[in-house]
Amino acid sequence: MPTAPHGDGLTERKRDRVRDAMRRADIAGFVLCENGRTRYLTGYQRYHSATQFAPAHAVVMTLDHGPILMVPRHIVAAAEKCAADRVIEYPQSQADKVATLAELLTTLGLADERLGIEFEFMPHGFAAALGQRLPKVRLVDASPVMRGVTGIKFAEEITILREAARIADLGVAAAIEAAREGASEIEIGARSSASMLDAGAEFVNHMTIRSGPHAAALFPLLTSRRLAKGDCVQIDIGCVYQGYVSDTNRSIVIGPPTPEQRTLMEVGQGMLEAGLAAVRAGIEAAHLWRVCRDVAAARDLSQWMAIPFVGHGIGLSLHEPPLIAPESPDVLAEDMVLALEPGLFIPGIGASRPEDMLRVTADGCELLTHHPRDHDMLAETDLPSSSGPRIE
What we know:
The chain has 12 helices and 17 strands. The protein is an alpha+beta fold. A hairpin with a 2-residue loop joins β8 (232-241) and β9.
């Protein structure tokens, strides 16, 4: 069972921030079902993995009441330890869920008000049934409001994210240690996962070891493929710590890298370092994308940027605004937390997608992940660099 939010007074400050945003959006109440958001307000979430009972739980909050946590009967006793003002039983069937929720909303005076639900998460059938049950209610999208609320982190949240990032660094180190010729992707992933759980992670959020052709093809799953000499291996991992997600990526080569692999990783690392140098509050996310792209373009490699973004916000979930993409309307703000991950993927050679987590500051950034950089690890091979110019 997840614990309540941490930090002295953090729970109340989160609620105050949500209510301020509700007032600005002219929304009288929220019904939230997405795991990260219900945990943000109450400390409760329903597993880390997918469940077929959607929505399995809900949090209701008004400008004056709540949060009220609605959970299944077998969870009620445990959920009372969370930071909800009240815990009530949420029935099993959709029809009964809708009836119970409608009754609560009516009692709270929301039956004919603007009610925020998560259009991107609540199933359409459930929302439609709720609207039929409360024909005067005006359903509006709560998701943009909540994204704005949770995108700027409190100091206590950043402290938690620092620890989540530290644990991810340990996972990278364990994966690199296990990445030997003959080891399988699954075996490496198991070592990495165990190291993060041993260090205090409550869940392994994602674990992808992409080797050989899987690296350039961005294959999403661990397989039984065994590493061979010359393989480029991409380690893309993250964990959940106290409800907050980490994300990092490093690439290595099994045995001596070819000149092409060395150049690939040097350029990829140069893209990341240029991006980190450009980060500060007030810049457009699209500008940050261009900074990273320009490094690859200067080496005639930008055509290998297979992923249409070079980073994203992170926190309650793996991918949050801002999206660092060429058409992004987002602007960086102080105390956003980003995962910056420019990547190059060249079939037959490998992939370079160095990724670091960072906190945006007024005049730069604070780096949260600290595992040695890809080109530094290549330097440990004590081999000559490629004949092409290095990116400084």
